[in-house]
Write a structure and sequence with these properties.
Elements lengths: L4 E6 L2 H12 L3 E5 L3 E4 L8 E6 L12 E4 L3 H11 L2 E8 L2 E7 L5 E7 L2
InterPro entries: Glyas_Bleomycin-R_OHBP_Dase, Glyoxalase_6, VOC_core
Pfam families: Glyoxalase_6 (PF18029)
Protein name: Glyoxalase
């Protein structure tokens, strides 16, 4: 068994796809009449991101979220905020710092950076 896709529930998959394709530097691979939009894998892992229309609004912090890492967290966070993300908070443990953000639909994700 292998991980092939992470799916985010949302109200408007096509709208949210605009944010995530820009954020990840990828494209829409499939669009099933706006009910389910699948993005192309954004790196060599082959893992894709799916956006699935659901009628329920988000009810607080999501139980599963995406963690991304970068060598320049400040620049990545600035770029994501410019695309429509909102900063939720900052966290730090020995050796790692990360910024918690929310995408335009309120789904939480993190951008981390190793610390000396």
């Amino acid at each position: 068994m292998q991980l092939k896709m992470i799916t985010i529930d949302c109200a408007e998959p096509r709208d949210l796809a605009k944010f995530w394709t820009a954020a990840l530097g990828t494209t829409v691979a499939s669009d099933y009449e706006g009910h389910f939009v699948m993005l192309a894998p954004w790196d060599s892992s082959g893992v894709a991101l799916g956006l699935q229309r659901v009628p329920d609004p988000a009810g607080g912090k999501n139980r599963v979220h995406i963690d991304m890492h970068t060598d320049d967290r400040a620049a990545a966070v600035d770029r994501l905020v410019g695309l429509g993300a909102a900063v939720v908070g900052e966290q730090k443990v020995p050796g790692l710092a990360w910024t918690v953000l929310a995408d335009p639909a309120g789904n939480v994700f993190c951008v981390g950076e190793e610390q000396p």
